[in-house]
Predict the 3D structure of the following.
Amino acid sequence: MLQIRDLSVSYGPVRALQGVSLSVPEGKLVCVIGSNGAGKTTLLRTISGLLTPGSGEVTLRGQSLLRQPPHRVARRGVGHVPENRRVFPDQSVQDNLILGAYTRMGKLKRDALNAELEGIYTTFPRLKERRQQLAGTLSGGEQQMLAIGRALMLNPAVLLLDEPSMGLAPIIIDEVFRQLQALKARGLTMLLVEQLAYRALGVADYGYVIEHGRIEIEGPAAQLRADPRVQAAYLGHSST
Ligand code: ATP
């Protein structure tokens, strides 16, 4: 579904990604794990058209996504749940969800929009209870659900998730990962970047380890969990 080939991205003299290649097959959840500053956010922002790579290629169903503005990449079917959630704090929960469908507004009839909202509320009943509440007053976990729900309103071909665990209590992180598992069971294609390697590899089909902007190790998630190099570097401190 999503292919990244030999991608390199720099911020001026800082090389953030160097020759990164990975693929996300249809219906699979692929994770990229790595520590702070490894290049995870840069990878997702480049796929979404927010950053322009120095070289490399990004394709969705074989068609290039590069050199297109972010709204067009979204319209092609790339949903992005950004780092730190970034909901619109002064808008209601429901308006945040409706804004998620903005690229489809021309085509989506009101009944269809309402049906999609109901679908999101079935997945996240908590959001239904709070649909008139301002998004900025939600808890961190609720805001994360809202950010995921908003991206789902795009009806994405692939969903990019940037550290959905960030800043959340362990019990809420459990809930977020249960939701990712449920979305995976429904066949959604996802690319998840996470510092919490143990959690990410617990839900993913396949994983990549990124260090200093390069993919160092890759393999089926179960194999990575058993890999002594991954255990030594990432699993010891992140399994709780
Ligand atoms: P984190 O988990 O902290 O978000 P990350 O793995 O997502 O880390 P990136 O945010 O992609 O990593 O950063 C990759 C590298 O690029 C780091 O060395 C970082 O300092 C650098 N970098 C990121 N954004 C910028 C920027 N706007 N200007 C300059 N350097 C940047």
Notes: The first strand starts at residue 2 and ends at 11. The mean pLDDT is 91.
